[in-house]
Every structure is written in C-alpha cells, then in structure tokens.
Amino acid sequence: MGKFSLFLFILTAAFSLPVYSCSCLENTVEEYIKNCPSIYTARLKSAFYKEETDLEFEQVVGKLGKPMTFYQGETQKLNTLVAPITGASFDMSLVVGKVYLVCDQGAPKQRLSCCSFTSQARWGDARKFIQAQENITN
C-alpha cells in the first residue's frame, strides 16, 4: 500500500467513526472532583441512542473499555463498563474510539465528563486537573 493510499485509508476511517451528541455539566472542576469517588480515562468502544428513558431526554448508552489511567479512587479490575451518557445537546459530540475522562460513582453511574477531557469547552479545566495530577505523581 502506497503512502497516499494509506493516508486516504486513515482519513476515511477517522471520518467514518460514529459521532453522538451529548451535554456538558455545569460544574466546576472542584465540584466534579468532590462528587466523583473514582476518576479515570477509558476508551469508548461503542455507543447508541436510547430513546425510552425515565429522564425527560434521550440518552446515549455506551460501553467503555478497561480503565487506562486512574486520577482518583482505587484501581479496580474491570473488563468492561456500561456507561449511561446524558445526551440531546449540539455543543459536543461523542466519538467511538476516543479516550474520555470518566466519573465513576459506582454502577450504573459511570459517566463521561462533559464528553471528554480533550474538548476545548467548559471542561477544558479538566485538562488542567489531569496535568496537575500527573505532575504530582511524577
């Protein structure tokens, strides 16, 4: 496979990943840390819309891979996690295959943090939190 063909393959794969909308939480980083017993990163393996919920809006239900990096709480031996992710907003989007920051309050409350710590939205502060934690542990 030539370099150009490989580039086109990678570009096509990147744009063919499923994307789902979701909402940002109006919290400060301090509130978030206080309310999450366990905070870690995990890759989103799959996601789908769940229209019939007990909430007033639809949900995106996703399956996360194994926790990658823990920032708060005890390391747990988990194969997979099923995470309800609040949906129905146009400001952010979920991408299958992307790594997300997870607030784990115990099953079934593993939730993504405003979609991702890599976003430039309000939760850009979460990136500072992660960098601060990495500086402490290094």
SSE arrangement, N to C: HEHEEEEEEEH
The poorly predicted ranges are 20-26, 77-92, 115-126
Beginning-to-end CA distance, first to last residue: 41 Å
Total number of distinct structural domains: 1
Instruction: State the CATH topology.
Output: OB fold (Dihydrolipoamide Acetyltransferase, E2P)
Estimate the strand proportion: 25-35%
Count the E strands: 8
Structural class: alpha+beta
Question: Would you tell me the overall average pLDDT?
Answer: 58
* Rg, Cα atoms, Å: 16 Å
Q: Which CATH architecture?
A: Beta Barrel
Characterization of the model:
With 138 residues, this protein is α+β, with helices and mostly antiparallel strands. The protein has a single domain, classed as OB fold (Dihydrolipoamide Acetyltransferase, E2P) (Beta Barrel), CATH 2.40.50. It contains 3 helices and 8 strands, in the order H-E-H-E-E-E-E-E-E-E-H. Strands 2, 3, 4, 5, 7 and 8 form a 6-stranded antiparallel beta sheet that branches. Strands 1-6 form a two-stranded antiparallel ribbon. The longest helix is centred in the N-terminal third of the chain and has 14 residues. It is extended and about 50 Å long.
